[in-house]
């Protein structure tokens, strides 16, 4: 079997690299003598001329630094201030500048130049996420004919949204240079096919194949997941280590865990909780919401705004409803270790996973995997998370409708143990069958 060459924006660092993708790809990288390539996270004075090996770890890793200008224009700029909002249905938040696009292309061209000399004829290349859309196009220009796959972790926009992007046609042309394009959900496959056909005049060959001269590419859904069994065991162990107050607390705990990103719908969630408290005075003091949200992409205006809005709303709701014994919303604005999260999921009665738009949402999957099978909590899940296509036994909500979300909160809090177990069984069955190992294997099998 040829080597796997995995390329992502950030390289997993440390002696024991961790994270979802490492779990998914670590074995294949090890078995095939593969290589992972990505940015180091450090800033250099001049653009990187060569890759630097990261010593140690179970597989080979090579990284390079970005300059401050590249970080600002390629990463914070085109990737996170243009593509991210567009791909999450927020074209209104795009901040379009020619310079962002120019540097984005330049960085991708340089990565292609750094990678090409490493390639052997039977290597398979797997490119991760929206930072690297043009990479296959650049590699093809350099004569690379290896199979190249791409996985997009975000949703994909349909033609109407795509029209808002000045270089939408070019983006579709980049995509056509991959042999296989993996998306999170069927909704994204439909949107991507429509965009390729309507924006770039690709011909539809059926069964997910499109032709855009001179290439043909396949677009299909490969919903990403977690190692559900591993997370289940982690939650079991970690639950016992939680401070006694959390577990013995007779009140009901609702939990939300999201990077503080406008796509996650945290303000909408808070408003719906406010609506719930307004309607159900009998629940005051008996339920609280623990929202854990590490800051992310600081310095990008839209992220500063969402932080302010969230702080303002939690303050207002707490001010309105709290009494000397009870605070309705506990808002933690920092990252929490993974194992603590696992224990907290298990201690929670309800999870609020209510993004306005989300590629998949792994918190939904982690929460289910962490539950006690005898007495599981309830997952409230937005219909706009990619996970909704697979997790139909969750309590589905429309995050734009605060009254419906408030009604569902009551349903979740009152749900019988029998129904909770039934829903949990069905969700857990899906999670153990289609876990993260299934995800990487099925993608790589399809890439051939
Ligand atoms: P994200 O937008 O980051 O990922 P998600 O899938 O929920 O969203 O993954 C977040 C991960 O970070 C989870 O493993 C979660 O436990 C962790 N996390 C969140 N808040 C945390 C906190 N306060 N402290 C510590 N850890 C925290 C993108 C896409 C998603 C897609 C994934 C994977 O936006 O839609 O599911 O990639 O493809």
Automatic annotation (TrEMBL):
Family matches, as CDD domains: GT20_TPS (cd03788)
One Pfam family in the UniProt entry: Glyco_transf_20
Coiled coil: none
Entries under InterPro entries matching the protein: Glyco_trans_20
Taxonomic superkingdom: Bacteria
Family membership noted in the UniProt record: Belongs to the glycosyltransferase 20 family.
Descriptive protein name: Trehalose-6-phosphate synthase
Species the sequence originates in: Thioclava electrotropha
